[in-house]
Write a structure and sequence with these properties.
homodimer; 185 residues; mainly alpha; 0% strand; DNA-binding
Chain lengths: 185, 185
DNA sequence: TCCAGACGGTACTGATCGGTACCGTTTCCG
DNA sequence: CGGAAACGGTACCGATCAGTACCGTCTGGA
């Protein structure tokens, strides 16, 4: 557990928001489980919405650097993203993609939380485009969006099936996609 | 607007739940917008959770018969499911898949709402398996799960992009998948 | 050493949550 | 035509929501 109140709040809020949903977790819970005083929370974050945004921004940075690190460790090929996902799917605390969940929970597309979540997805698309460009694939921009569609489909499916199988399924799909793109090139 | 109180409740609740989320919509809102008295609601549904389950079960039936009807109208081929989805994506009130949204919002996998939503997805998988079997494709059971993964990925992506493009993207993926399966058969 | 800022704890606000109780009216069916 | 069931409206319940105010304490840097 982090030492500073602000860091403890972010860590506790992220864990609870991800596990149970943003709306489902009250300020009271976050205070109790983080051991932070009420006033301290509102000293660092003017409102719950600000806390939510801060949590999402922190998670965005951490998640994308985690993905890049795993992909590199797994060989650096674009298909490695699905192997990285598989590692997440089997974890006991896996609850889908925090950013998909946020976009669904905060329905209003103009809400700050929704915007941060949408921006995260665009960043992931950008990362995959860069990965596919490095792999010298034809039409990396189109393929990147198809890869992310497969990743999101796998995440949502894994939420139901609670196994790593959807990652493998999406990977196979991506493989045939690469093979088809390579053959027509 | 339906005449009977129960039907009005179901219609109003479904619309509000889909548009804003289950948690975000209070009983008060449903009563006000449906014009139903408080006691009447609790006469038909013992609790909000029961109303939620009833709404989801009704939507499940309607959604699946809608899909079957559209697929048949579009020629009956498995790929037609993506054309059907495209029709939904461009609607102004499109807010993703109500069942995915429900599984995310009611995080507990054992909750009644979550269970109904998960059962819906399995029914869709069953429908696609039947569709793919009729199309005499190799390994229809595996392909059905891959198709549903693509459908869910397209839905989640359409939620961000707000166009029909993800449906087309998923359709292309499914086409290459069918082509690959056909060539290895 | 001293003091300012960060901190945890508690009491409180008005609003809203899901749910209950009881009211008088309307509607439909025998 | 009569009565019972279905209905809409309102007052109310305890619990919880996000947010404010003020308390005494602890801590780190000058």
């Amino acid at each position: 557990m982090p030492v500073k109140a602000r860091d403890r709040l972010l860590a506790t809020a992220e864990e609870l928001f991800y596990a149970e949903g943003i709306r489902a977790v009250g300020i009271e819970r976050i205070l109790a489980e983080s051991g932070v005083g009420r006033a301290s929370l509102y000293r660092h974050f003017p409102s719950k919405d600000d806390l939510v945004v801060a949590v999402l921004e922190a998670r965005d940075r951490r998640w994308r650097s985690w993905l890049a690190e795993r992909v590199e460790a797994l060989g650096g090929r674009p298909l490695a993203v699905f192997d990285a996902l598989a590692e997440r799917f089997v974890r006991n605390d896996f609850r889908g993609c925090a950013f998909i969940n946020t976009m669904i929970e905060s329905a209003d597309p103009d809400s700050p939380a929704h915007r941060v979540a949408a921006a995260h997805k665009e960043s992931v698309v950008g990362y995959l485009e860069q990965l596919l460009t490095a792999a010298e694939v034809a039409e990396p921009a189109l393929l990147a969006r198809q890869f992310v569609l497969l990743m999101d489909g796998a995440v949502v499916t894994a939420l139901r099936e609670r196994t790593a199988a959807p990652a493998e399924r999406a990977r196979r799909l991506a493989e045939t996609l690469l093979a088809a793109a390579g053959s027509t090139a």
